[in-house]
Amino acid sequence: MSSECTWSVLVVLCFILATGAHGGTVCTAKSSKGEEVLLGSKFTFSCNFTEQCIKQAFLNTTLIKQEPSNSPKEMSVDVENITDLSIYSCKCKGNTEPCGIDIKPGYPPDVPQNLTCIQKMKSGNVSCIWTTGRGTIISTTCKIRVHGDPHPEYMSIMDPRGVCHSTFPIKSPISQLVVSLNVSNSLGSKTSGPHTFILSNIAKPSMPNISEVSCSSRWCNLHTDNHSMNLVEIQYSSGNGIWNTNQINAKSRLNISSLQPDSTYTFQIRRKINQKVGLWSDWSQPKKAKTKEEAPDKALDVWYLQEPKPPQPNSKCFRIFWKELNISDAKGKIQRYNISVREQTGMNSFIAVPPSRNQSICCSNCSVSVSASNSDGHSPVKFIPLHVPGLVSVSLSYQPLNSHSIALSWTKFATEYVVHWYPVENIEGIQWIKVVDAKVHITGLQPQECYQGAVTALRQSRPKMVSITGFATRQSVPEQGPVPQLGWKTSESMNVTWSKIPPKKRRGCLKKYTVYLMDKLKGDIHNFSVDHPETQYVISGLSPGQCYNLWVTAWTDAGEGPRGSDLPFCTPSDSERMLSLVILAGGAVLLGCLILLCLCQFTSVQKRFLWCCQCLLPIIPDPANSKCAKTYTDDQSEIKFYLDQCDSSVNEEPDNVEVEEVSYPPICAYIKSFSQESSSSDATQITRITDITEDYISTHGAISGGEEEDEEEETGLDEFEFFPSTHSPFLEPLVLSGGKLTLDVVKIDCSEFLDCT
User: Fold this and answer.
1) Same domain, yes or no, for 621 and 739?
2) Residue 221's beta-bridge partner residues?
3) Residue 721: what are its φ and ψ, rounded to 5°?
4) CA separation for the pair 726, 457 (Å, rounded)
5) Virtual CA dihedral for 106, 111, 113, 116, nearest 10 degrees?
6) d(CA 209, CA 220)
7) Which of 83, 88, 143, 559 could form a disulfide with 477 if both were Cys (CB 3.0 to 4.6 A apart)?
8) How far apart are CA 561 and CA 554, in angstroms?
9) pLDDT of res. 13
10) Does 729 map to a domain?
11) What average pLDDT does this structure show over 638-656?
12) Distances, alpha carbon 277 to alpha carbons 178, 382, 688, in Å
C-alpha cells in the first residue's frame, strides 16, 4: 500500500470519529449559580438539546424528569437544599451520550483568626498559621501580605479543617513584622489585619539533641549539643504515663535527682532564649537511660506451711514461702534468696535459692531467716520460728461478696492472725495476709475456682490453726465427668477407680462422686455415693458370668455434672476362675523350673548342690566282709579299673591300677595306688616313671577344691568317680573295663568320707 493511500485512510477515520463524537453530544448543561453553590441553597439546573427527542434529566444515576419529543428544546429542573456533591445530567432517550455538570456545595470563608507566627532561628524564615472558623468544603485560597516586603503576597491553599499556613523569608533587617490576611473562594472573600509581631518574641530555637545520659542509682546527668540558650526545660517519665518537668539554667549541669534505683527513664529537653524572650523550641527526640541498683531496704514477707508428706516418715519438713518485693522495694533485679536454718542444737546451715517463691526445709525445733539479694547487696533479714501448729475447734464461716472476693469470719481466739489461701492442688499459688480482727475480706479470687486455707493464731509458744476445707466465689456443675478404670474383679465383686477431674474443669469445690452400675441383662441401675477426695470403690454382690456397664459423675454445691466415659465389663464364671487359677499355678511352676535350670549352669552352684546332697548318696558296704569276697579271695587277687582321664588335654589310654587300703590318719581315708608290671600280660604298662611311685588321692581335697600334694602326677581322680553312677549331669562318666579287684584289699569307709569338712 502506498503512503498516499495510508494517509487517506487515516483522514477518513479521524473524520468518522469526529463526526461520531459530535453527533453523540445532543445537549449542553448549566447551573444558574455555577458549579459551586452555597450549602442548602436553591438553584436551577437546565439543559439545551440540539435535536428533538424524548428528553431525560438525572440526579447522579436517578431519573428525576422526562419530557416528550415535541416539548421545547430547553428543559430545566429546580433544585432545593443541596447538601452533597451531586452530578446533574441530561440525555435523549436511547442515546448513551449524556451532558451534565458537577455541583459542589460549600461555604464562603469566615474572617481569618487565631494568627500565630514564629521565626525559626536556624533558617530565619517566618511561618504563620491561622484559621477561618470552619472548613469551606470547596477550594479556598489563603493569602498573607507582608508590609514593607517587595513581594508582598504569599499564597497557599486552605486544608479541609479550615487551617491556612504560609512560610516566607525576612529579606530586610526589621525588628517587627506587620502582616494582613485574606481568605477567598467562589462564594466570598474575607480579610483581617494588619497584625504586628516583635521578631524577638516569635524567635524559636532549633530542636536540641541529647547526646548521652549518665546515671547513678538516684540521679542522671544529661549531655546535650552545644547551644547558647540560657533556659532549658527537662521532662522525664519512668514509663507509668506521668511526666515530671524541671526548668534548669543552661549554664549549669543538666542533672535530674530524686530518681528510683534500677528504673528506666525517658528524657526529653527543649530550650528558650530566656524566661521572657522568645519561644520554646520543639522537644528533643526521647533518650532512655537506666539508673543503677541499690541493696533492698525492706524485709521479705515470709510464711510457712508444714509439708503433708515429708521424705522421711519421722522427719518434720516445712515449705517456706515469701512474697516478691515490688520494684521500688527491690531496688534492682533479685538474683537469689538467702535462707539460714538454725537448730536448737546449735547447728546452722545456709541455702542459696534462685529466684523463686518457696523452699522446703526439714528440721526439728528450728528457725529460719530469709533475705533477698541483688547485685548491690541484700535486704534486711526476716526471722521466723518453725512450729507445727496445733488444731483448734473454732466456728468459721464465709460469704461470697462477688465473683472475686469473699468475707471470712471466725470466733476470736487470739490477738493476731495470719490467713492464708491457695487453689486446691496448687500450693504454689498461696497468698496470705496478717489481721488483728476476727474477720477479713479475701480478694483477687477467680470465679469457679476452689480454694483451701487456714486461719493461724500467732503465739509465742505454739501457734493454733483452724482449717478452711474449701470455698469458692461462684460455682457451677462440673464440666466433665471422671474416667473410670477397672482395678480388680472376681466373680462376685470388683474394685473400680477413676481419674481426677482437672481443676479447670471442676467449676467449684467437689463434694462427692456417684458410681452408677447398670445390669445389661436386666437393665437395673444401682448407684453408690463416694465422698470426695476418694477415687475408688469396691462393688460387691455381683453375679458370676454377668455383664455390666459402669460410669461415674461428680458433684459440686451447684449440682451433678455429666457422666464420664462408660466402663463395660463382665464378671468371670466359676469354671473360668478355676481355669485361671490352674494357668496361674502352672505358670509359676514353669517359671521356677526355668530359674532353677539357669542357676544349675554355674559351676559354683553345682558344687554347692552336690556338697549338700552327699548325705543322700547310698552307703557302700565293706567289701572285705562280703560273702563274695570270702569265696573268691584265693582265685582273684586283683582287679583293674579303667578310668577316664579328667583332663581332656591328655589323650593317653587309662592305666590299669591295683588299689589297696592305706592308713592315713590325719586326713580321712586315702587310697594308695601304685603301678607294676603284670605277670600275665604281654602288653606294655603305661607309666609316667620307671620306679614304683605312691600316689595319694584325697577325697577331702577334691571336695574342698585343694590341690594334690604330688605336682608330678598330671592325672587325678575326682572323688565322685568312685560312685557307681554314669548318668549324673554333674559328674564325669565312670567306665569299667575288665581287670580284677581283690575285695579283701579294697576297703572304703563312707563315714570318714562324709565327715570330711
Assistant:
1) yes
2) 214, 255
3) -75, -5
4) 87
5) 90
6) 16
7) 559
8) 5
9) 38
10) yes
11) 41
12) 19, 58, 136
Long-range contacts of 192-197 (CB under 8 A, 24+ apart): 192/111, 192/112, 192/113, 192/115, 193/112, 193/145, 194/147, 195/115, 197/117
What pLDDT, in 10s, does the model give residues 503-533?
A: 889 999 999 999 999 998 888 899 999 999 9
Question: Which amino acid appears at position 686 of this protein?
Answer: I
Report how far residue 170's alpha carbon sits from residue 473's, in angstroms, rounded to the nearest whole number.
Answer: 74
pLDDT of residue 627: 54
Domain that holds residue 151: 113-198
Could you identify the residue written with the cell 528504673? Answer: 263
Mean confidence (pLDDT) of the chain? 77
User: Which pLDDT tens digit goes with each residue over 200-235?
Assistant: 889 998 888 898 999 999 999 998 876 666 788 999
Q: Tell me whether the omega of the peptide bond preceding residue 194 falls within 30 degrees of 0, making it cis.
A: yes
Total Cβ atoms within 10 A of residue 77: 16
- Asked, for residue 742, whether it belongs to a domain, the answer is yes
Buried b (16+ CB within 10 A) or exposed e, 347-379: eeeebebeeeebbebebeebebbbbbbbeeebb
Q: Do 90 and 189 fall within a single domain?
A: no
Distance CA 182, CA 402 (A): 65
Radius of gyration of the chain measured on its C-alpha atoms: 58
- Is 95 contained in some domain? yes
**CB-CB contact of 48 with 92 (8 Å):** no
The residue-averaged pLDDT of 62-71 equals 87
Residues 97 and 165 in one domain: no
Quick one: cell of 102? 458537577
What pLDDT is stored for residue 622 in this prediction?
56
The string of DSSP letters for 538-552 reads EEE-PPTT-EEEEEE
Grid coordinates belonging to 720: 565322685
Residue showing cell 455434672: 561
- Cα(131)–Cα(116) distance, integer angstroms: 10
* Mean pLDDT, rounded, for 148-162: 81
Q: What is the mean pLDDT of residues 716-720?
A: 38
Does 707 fall in a domain?
Answer: yes
User: Closest Cα to residue 101, out of 88, 115, 86, 82?
Assistant: 88
Q: What's the CA gap between 513 and 534, in Å, rounded?
A: 8
| DSSP tag of 459 | -
Residues 6+ apart with CB under 8 A from 517: 525, 526, 527, 528, 539, 548, 549, 550
Same domain, 179 and 259: no
pTM of the model: 0.53
Over residues 658-664, the mean pLDDT reads 45
Would you say residue 304 has pLDDT above 80? Answer: yes
